[in-house]
Amino acid sequence: MLLSILIPTHNRSAVLLQTLERLARVTLPPGHEVEAIVIANACSDGSAAAVAARAADFPFPLRATEEPQPGVAHARNRALKEARGEMVFFLDDDIAVEPEWMLRHLEVHAQLKVDLVVGKTGLWYVEKQPPDWMRPALESILSFKNLGEDVRAIANPGDCISQNLSMTRKVFETVGAFNTALGRRPGSLLGGEEIDFVERAMQAGFMAGYAPRAVGLHWIPAKFLEDEYLRRLSIDIGRTRVFMKKDLKSGAIARRLLANPFRIASHRLNELLALLAGNREGWMKHRIKRWKQQGGWLGTWQYLRGTAPTLNSGAVKMPPNPG
After folding, report:
1. pLDDT at position 317
2. Which whole number is the average pLDDT over 245-270?
3. What is the pLDDT of residue 250?
4. DSSP codes of every residue in 90-122
5. Of 224, 258, 289, which one is at a domain's C-terminal end?
6. pTM tops 0.90
7. C-alpha 257: how far from its chain's center?
8. Is residue 317 included in any domain, yes or no?
9. Residue 120: which residues within 8 A CB-CB, separation 6 or more?
10. Of the N and C termini of the chain, which has fewer Cβ atoms inside 10 Å?
């Protein structure tokens, strides 16, 4: 069986090369061929050339393909078109995998007889140690994913984030493409494209599993711990949750627009009380919730005005693989 590792990237060639160095140490599954494909998404920093240079002595075939349309969903769709494997493994360009990462994904596919598997993702603080308020419950905003130490089935699409996700070819050939109205793009921290995809996969009857030993570490630069980044990220998480609603009616829109300001005020009060009590974890927890509620209000307003990106999104069918 041929296995395809798919990595979208946007103008982070230095981080990408670190990821590829860790990927080069992966133990290859016996009896399988492996290819790695990097999708340079609207890159202007020479990412494709950097991959080509690294490919010369990589332990398995590695290549880069450029996708000019900005947006991670566009990059993921291009990756699926380029992949030749019967199984694909999505990684983000800032995920450092452990040597047995691929083997552990395959074990869970075989053990649970599922078509999607998500691995465990920890956080890798390489420039600055985490602040004193950072706890696992808050680390999830930075894509921390730990569902325990046991292999098990997954029923929640939100647990299947694409930074460390594998799936069989029949999933995307059945379900279609990632919704390009969702997902990050330059200037935006919207997400949700993988949750939308997995939700459609589950509705089509595909099952998912969790591989606790398929470990990746998400690189956390210092800027990810700054207030401005966390505020923007939280707001766009709130907006994403609204944009993913498929049937938001006028009554629900009105209730959201009225309720959100009260929730924002409540979290602001709890935030101040936690700060006065010296509870910095509680302080940050309520700040993040307040920012998410602000994003929810903004997203609902966009929905009301007809400017939510998902309102005008078209079909998400995947063309046949030309390869």
Report:
1. 52
2. 90
3. 82
4. EE-TTEEEPTTHHHHHHHHHHHHT-SEEEEEEE
5. 224
6. yes
7. 28
8. no
9. 145, 146, 147, 164, 210, 211, 212, 213, 214, 215, 216
10. C
